[in-house]
């Protein structure tokens, strides 16, 4: 028999995260394009981001037929948050800046799946790209990062917004993420966690 699930955060009702999910406003809009393989992932951080930001939208799929409409939103300039050639490092909005705020398009999936999304949605691949400064450290202690600076989708969004909209803090978005990780560590047991994920000196 399957456990009852919260329809909002998609966690078992006994481990519902909704009380920890904030409602944060932002000048930046966030469009999350999630590969279907991520939907059932235990940490589905893109969903947490979409729930915690009032100006965020989450779409799931491989091909987005209405992409033109999604990325050409009046009053915003679309940028793809993904490494690539001619990528600009994000910087803060200037107070006197009269240019349009960003629509931050964030693909969610493994590197391979994201590249597939870009291939299947050429309009996405053609967007100007932005990236985070080097040196970011992930709080995700349960999975070996594919390389230095590799972050979960939620962490990347928090860092991007904190750069763009400094000095505003978006740290409350990380509360349900931390609770998820702590819950998984607790479930596997401290000894198993230390053996598999503890610091290797």
Automatic annotation (TrEMBL):
Which keywords does UniProt give here?
Answer: S-adenosyl-L-methionine, Transferase, tRNA processing
Domain of life assignment: Bacteria
Q: Which GO terms describe its molecular function?
A: tRNA-uridine aminocarboxypropyltransferase activity
Q: What InterPro entries has UniProt attached to this entry?
A: DTW, DTWD2/TAPT
State the Pfam families in the record.
Answer: DTW
Keyword RNA-binding present in the record's keywords: the answer is no
A single BP term in Gene Ontology = tRNA processing
Q: Which residues form the DTW domain?
A: 2-189
UniProt key word Ribonucleoprotein: no
> What is the top EC class of this enzyme, as a single word?
transferase
Give the EC number: 2.5.1.25
Entry's PANTHER family? TRNA-URIDINE AMINOCARBOXYPROPYLTRANSFERASE 2 (PTHR21392)
Report the sequence similarity comment from the record.
Answer: Belongs to the TDD superfamily. DTWD2 family.
Give the protein name, as stated in the record.
Answer: tRNA-uridine aminocarboxypropyltransferase
Q: What is the lineage of its organism?
A: Bacteria, Pseudomonadati, Pseudomonadota, Gammaproteobacteria, Pseudomonadales
């Amino acid at each position: 028999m399957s456990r009852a699930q919260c329809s909002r955060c998609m966690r078992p009702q006994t481990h519902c995260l909704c009380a920890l999910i904030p409602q944060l406003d932002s000048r930046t809009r966030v469009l999350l394009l999630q590969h279907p393989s991520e939907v059932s992932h235990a940490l589905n951080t893109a969903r947490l981001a979409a729930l915690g930001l009032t100006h965020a939208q989450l779409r799931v799929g491989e091909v987005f037929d209405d992409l033109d409409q999604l990325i050409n939103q009046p009053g915003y300039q679309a940028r793809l948050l993904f490494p690539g050639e001619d990528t600009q490092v994000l910087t803060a909005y200037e107070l006197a800046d009269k240019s349009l705020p960003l629509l931050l398009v964030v693909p969610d999936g493994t590197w391979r799946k994201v590249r597939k999304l870009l291939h299947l949605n050429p309009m996405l691949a053609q967007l100007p790209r932005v990236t985070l400064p080097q040196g970011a450290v992930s709080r995700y202690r349960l999975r070996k990062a594919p390389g230095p600076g590799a972050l979960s989708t939620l962490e990347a969004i928090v860092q991007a917004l904190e750069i763009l909209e400094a000095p505003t803090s978006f740290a409350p978005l990380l509360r349900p993420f931390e609770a998820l990780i702590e819950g998984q560590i607790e479930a596997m047991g401290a000894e198993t966690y230390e053996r598999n994920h503890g610091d290797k000196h």
